[in-house]
User: What shape does this take?
Amino acid sequence: MNYYHEVTEHQAIPIKEGVIELLEWLKANQIPMAVATSTDLRLAKVKLQLAGLERYFDNVTCGCEVTHGKPDPEIYVLAASRLNVEPQYCLGFEDSNNGVRAGIVAHLQMIQIPDLVEPTDEIKALGHTILPSLKAVVGHLSK
Assistant: This one.
């Protein structure tokens, strides 16, 4: 466990291909942005800072601030309220099936970018957008 904290607190996490282009596009279109993560608030902010991404986000909402974790929608509802935006007008990005479930129940428009686990048939049936990578998101949103 000490090794995990040493790495995550002092080394930047790898940035997914396409994330900077997506964040820049959202920023250029004046779309407010928040992070909704189960990670502890202090650690989430450190990770964003080390990766050079913190400047893009108006808010960071973390699992330590909610009673129920994903797939419960509470974290998404809280993040949306902190942006002063109704959840149905929010776009959520997720890699996990539980995160997608949470976003759908919160009424967000969800885009799933599978990472380690592919979406199950049950998740695919939710009708959200599934894209192969973050590189594909700007093109999708520009349509």
